[in-house]
Amino acid sequence: MIHYFKKAEEGKKTFLLLHGTGGDEMDLVPLANMVDKGNGILSIRGAVSENGMNRFFRRIAEGIFDEDDIRQRAGEISDFILEASEKYGFNPNDLIALGYSNGANMIAAMLLLKGGIFRQAILHHPMVPLSQVGDINLEGTSVFIGAGTNDPIVTGENSQRLYELLKGNGADAVISWFDKGHSLTKEEVLASREWLLSQT
């Protein structure tokens, strides 16, 4: 997979970064550095192209996902994380997953498909990625959700449903609301930073 890697400082963890639709592996690097510049970074470019825009899985229409493709791509990313951890020498169990929009949806899907894959996750403007979810155990997993009160892509009801789905399966989840639509603002990034600091 096309990716960017930065080694963590001594004693620090590593971010897994998954960008939004049309982004690439460098998009969220400044954001990750704002949250904790000492952490390492494994940032992956989405392998699906939609009209020339990078994504992490196919969709049938706006807000309607190809769920078989989600499952396949989630498995591929999981495998790549293990390969990268061996190549670069980081602990895959200590990854902090951070995603925006399409990337946040993929991280949410990975949590719902393989409970415990990430102990900490920061999801900016995600939505419920799967219509059917099996029994999962998310105890020991902490999740920050940044949602928009007036997001034109993700309804407040959908954001709340994802929060309740994660929390209902054992995750220590919090949801913070912002009024800037689907945009990822400095205010939201700083809120996620405060949340992450509270976890350690």
List keywords for this structure.
Carboxylesterase; globular; seven-stranded mixed sheet; hydrolase activity; single chain; Rossmann fold; two-stranded antiparallel sheet; AB_hydrolase_fold; 5 helices
Explained architecture:
The chain is α/β, with parallel strands linked by helices. The protein has a single domain (3-198), classed as Alpha/Beta hydrolase fold, catalytic domain (Rossmann fold, 3-Layer(aba) Sandwich), CATH 3.40.50.1820. Helix content is 34%, strand content 25%. The chain has five helices and eleven strands. Helix 1 (29-36) crosses helix 5 (186-198) and helix 2 (67-88) crosses helix 3. The termini are far apart.
What's the short story on this structure?
It is built from five helices and eleven strands, in the order E-E-H-E-E-E-E-E-H-E-H-E-E-H-E-H. It has 200 residues and is α/β, with parallel strands linked by helices. Helix 1 links the parallel strand 2 and strand 3.
